[in-house]
TrEMBL record:
Pfam families: Ldh_1_C, Ldh_1_N. Residues 5-154 form the Lactate/malate dehydrogenase N-terminal domain. InterPro entries: L-lactate/malate_DH (IPR001557), Lactate/malate_DH_C (IPR022383), Lactate/malate_DH_N (IPR001236), Lactate_DH/Glyco_Ohase_4_C (IPR015955), Malate_DH_type2 (IPR010945), NAD(P)-bd_dom_sf (IPR036291). It catalyses: (S)-malate + NAD(+) = oxaloacetate + NADH + H(+). Residues 159-324 form the Lactate/malate dehydrogenase C-terminal domain. It comes from Kinneretia aquatilis. The keyword Heme does not apply. It comes from the Bacteria. This is Malate dehydrogenase. HAMAP family: Malate_dehydrog_2 (MF_01517).
Length: 327
């Protein structure tokens, strides 16, 4: 049987963590033949550490055959030791009266420390996924704080936006979500993201042709996908957690095991593709194989799309300017 791989998860006692860990341990992320060791990080706070103990008891009680070990940590230098995969879920939420600059600064502190810790102790091939918001900027901060690791190994989660868009398009076209191909989401994981179905097909038919309604695209589809997180909070009284955890599983599974030629969306550092300045962590269409992702190049960007891409890029660059002095 395979050697276990090490999977670090931060914010492990939070609500996304609770929807995520059991699925990683059951083999849904890295395959039903791949044993895993979970290295869980929580803040030192007694309440968080106790909650983490409870989650670990439940993991034990699931008796997952693939779960080769579970560790609880409060120090990233221990949690990230030799880790092959790191899912950075924990982040500072916006508190009452907290300004955007304060939020950026609080998260810059967390992700600078975590980037440095990954740089010091993680596997040299560690694959990092940032879920905690602002995800793209947090990934950028961690990447900049880890100069000895390949920058391309730092990614941000756009997959939830991708999956939300796929679900809306399946409903609109009356087809199955699994039949939808070549969808992508450009930019920041925020309401400014641009879900782009111009190239997408369902059962081989062009979705753009099937929908044939640019007003629906601009006035219904994009706002619905962009504000879906807020709609779930309004309905459930809590933020989306199971769907966020599911998207994290999808992102890591496809990165590790390959997308079989299909497009998926990942937030990855640009190399200048589509005029996005190098280093900006941006949602792109990618294909994955052999543990590597490749940005899909050469797509035509029309005027409407360019305008949308410019908006989400400007927001991201504003966030990055806001943390520059902290790096
Ligand atoms: P959640 O588990 O619900 O959310 C964690 C992070 O994921 C938040 O930043 C949240 O952003 C983000 N997120 C990204 N996409 C989504 C989405 N679609 N829906 C909801 N959230 C999304 O938060 P909890 O408060 O339950 O848990 C966070 C845990 O992290 C706590 O246990 C805390 O102690 C821990 N923590 C750990 C740190 C560490 O390990 N060093 C550092 C900081 C916190 P948003 O805030 O925008 O909803």
């Amino acid at each position: 049987s395979k050697t276990p791989v090490r999977v670090a998860v931060t914010g492990a006692a939070g609500q996304i963590g609770y929807a995520l860990l059991f699925r990683i341990a059951s083999g849904e992320m890295l395959g039903k033949d791949q044993p895993v060791i979970l290295q869980l990080l929580e803040i030192p706070d007694e309440k968080a550490q106790n909650a983490l103990k409870g989650v670990i008891m439940e993991l034990e009680d699931c008796a997952f055959p693939l779960l080769a070990g579970v560790e609880a940590h409060s120090d990233p230098l221990q949690a990230f030791k030799d880790t092959d995969y790191a899912l950075l879920v924990g982040a500072r939420p916006r508190g009452p009266g907290m300004e955007r600059a304060d939020l950026l600064a609080a998260n810059a502190q967390i992700f600078t420390a975590q980037g440095k810790a990954l740089n010091a102790v993680a596997s040299r091939n560690v694959k990092v996924l940032v879920v905690g918001n602002p995800a793209n900027t947090n990934a950028y901060i961690a990447m900049k704080s880890a100069p000895d690791l390949p920058a391309k190994n730092f990614t941000a989660m756009l997959r939830l936006d991708h999956n939300r868009a796929a679900s809306q398009l399946a409903a609109k076209t009356g087809t199955k979500v699994g039949d939808i191909k070549k969808l992508t989401v450009w930019g920041n994981h925020s309401p400014t993201m641009y879900a782009d179905y111009r190239f997408a097909t369902t059962n081989g038919q062009s979705i753009k042709d099937l929908v044939n309604d640019q007003v629906w695209n601009a006035d219904t589809f994009l706002p619905t996908v962009g504000k879906r997180g807020a709609a779930i909070i309004a309905a459930r009284g809590l933020s989306s957690a199971a769907s966020a955890a599911n998207a994290a599983i999808d992102h890591m599974r496809d990165w590790a095991l390959g997308s079989n030629g299909e497009w998926v969306t990942m937030g990855v550092p640009s190399n200048g593709e589509y005029g996005i300045p190098a280093g900006v962590v941006f949602g792109f269409p990618v294909t994955t194989a052999g543990g590597e992702y490749k940005i899909v190049e050469g797509l035509e960007i029309d005027a409407f799309s360019q305008e949308r891409i410019n908006i989400t890029l400007a927001e991201l660059q504003g966030e990055q300017d806001g943390v520059k002095h902290l790096l």
